[in-house]
Design brief:
471 residues, 7-stranded mixed beta sheet, 6-stranded mixed beta sheet, 15 helices, 23 strands, globular
Length: 471
């Protein structure tokens, strides 16, 4: 059987054709075109059409048995009563609601109560606060359906307004304990449950509509698995649904996730708690990773210099400046969406290449800060599954292992979320008994250099001093 996996990610459409007979697959990724100049907002129909076009290329000439959908957490859009987009899609990276959140954070009891209900912080990434912003801008929310890119894709492909528990857990509207929308939160936003998509678990599938079938060039009626988040699906695709297995991704943004059998909410709000298709996830995420690397390279070196060339030109690895990677605001650990990034302790002898090294270190120190907080409430993981764009740099990857001082397992497949969509579909189709049975062996393991432990420990202490100074 062929499974077609479609994903609307932050910057690109992705598709995988998975053959259950031998486990082989083909992947296509294509950056979006025709969206807004502001990369934190998208055109919903544009993204949908490009995702479907990519899927049709892979599906051509194949008999597709099931379609599985993936996307990002935290997007929000409004649709009119005819289900036509009435606003752009505001992505997780859109921080327009920062001022709204700043006011709400003045009340520590509100922050703690909201966190204990939802597993989410009072932060601009969450759709709930984006709704408050739209209301402040004059939108009469009762006139609209509340959607996101993932739920919009569900509707366009099946005609059903549904949202998986996994995707809903990142909206800030769902009570993580009951897995239902929280009435008090809906009342605060001025919306009703009827305006939201129906919450369903991962076992529900819906038949592909005629219109969607034409776009893909396949038969109508094929079962469609509604959108789960790329983070939740990645947990499935890399074999990290079992307890004690952590996923660690350093891509456009950064994320560390650990599967738990129940919601884990520390006394002091810090780490988030969402859901994978199978269980809860205790995790931490950062806004600035490879996007900070790309930002620095584009502005200081341009397109004709490779990342490897920059690394080879680094002269100072000891007194490197400190970089705070908050160009796009801060998620974990401080959840300050108004925070800005920049360099500290820069000396006259530092060259652009040395500043590049500082960016690499700053990104990882931010993640290590999160890791220490996460392990404080969950314990040290038995294994860490490592992925993301960082793997294109051997030096940066080794630096990560040396800072964390732990083995990092790397799989052959760099598209864990797409593979997770295929694995989920295989369970629902009866090809495998349970997604927990899927545990791919690592292609390689990155081992830390113990001699680097004290070196990076001192550097991390310096990073923390700069971080805590509020600069």
């Amino acid at each position: 059987m062929y499974i077609l996996v479609l994903e609307a990610s932050t910057t690109s459409a992705k598709a995988m054709l998975y053959d259950t007979s031998d486990g082989s697959f083909e992947v296509k990724v294509r950056a979006y075109t025709g969206n807004y100049e502001d990369v934190t907002i998208h055109k919903a129909e544009n993204v949908y059409q490009q995702m479907m076009a990519l899927g049709s290329e892979l599906a051509e000439g194949k008999e597709i048995g099931m379609i599985s959908l993936g996307g990002t957490w935290h997007s929000l859009m409004l649709c009119d009563k005819n289900m036509e987009p009435a606003t752009p899609v505001y992505l997780w990276s859109y921080t327009g609601a920062a001022e709204v959140c700043k006011e709400l954070r003045q009340d520590p009891d509100y922050v703690k109560n909201y966190y204990n209900k939802t597993g989410c912080m009072v932060n601009a990434i969450y759709p709930f606060f984006k709704l408050l912003l739209l209301k402040k801008r004059g939108y009469d929310l009762k006139d609209y359906y509340v959607m996101g890119q993932g739920t919009y894709n569900n509707y366009r492909m099946t005609g059903r307004r549904v949202i998986t528990e996994c995707l809903a857990s990142g909206t800030g509207l769902l009570n993580t304990h009951t897995k239902k929308y929280d009435p008090e939160i809906l009342a605060a936003a001025g919306i009703t449950e009827a305006q939201l998509s129906e919450v369903v678990d991962y076992t529900h599938t819906y038949p592909l509509t005629e219109d969607a079938a034409k776009l893909l060039g396949v038969k109508a009626g094929i079962p469609v698995v509604p959108t789960s988040s790329d983070g939740g699906l990645n947990q499935v695709g890399v074999g990290a649904v079992a307890e004690g297995v952590m996923t660690f991704s350093v891509g456009t943004s950064g994320a560390i996730r650990l599967t738990t059998p129940k919601p884990i909410l520390p006394e002091e709000p810090s780490t988030w708690c969402y859901m994978s298709p199978k269980a809860w996830l205790s995790g931490a995420a950062t806004n600035g990773c490879c996007n900070c690397i790309d930002w620095f390279k584009d502005r200081m070196f341009g397109p004709d210099v490779s990342y490897g060339d920059i690394e080879r030109g680094i002269e100072d690895r000891t007194t490197t400046p400190v970089f705070l990677p908050f160009l796009f605001g801060e998620r974990c650990p401080g959840w300050n969406d108004e925070r800005t990034g920049g360099f500290l302790e820069v000396r006259p002898y530092h060259k652009p290449n040395d500043l590049y090294r500082a960016v690499q270190e700053g990104v990882l120190f931010n993640l290590y800060h999160c890791y220490k907080m996460l392990t404080k409430v969950n314990g040290v993981p038995k294994r860490i599954k490592f992925s993301g764009g960082i793997l294109h740099s051997e030096e940066w990857t080794q630096m990560c292992a040396d800072i964390f001082q732990t083995d990092l397992e790397v799989d052959n497949n760099e598209h864990g979320s797409l593979l997770g969509g295929a694995v989920l579909a295989m369970e629902l189709a009866g090809v495998i008994t349970d997604v927990r049975d899927f545990d791919p062996a690592p292609a390689k393991i990155i081992h830390p250099n113990p001699e680097k432990a004290k070196f990076y420990e001192k550097k991390f202490e310096r990073y923390l001093r700069c971080y805590e100074s509020g600069c």
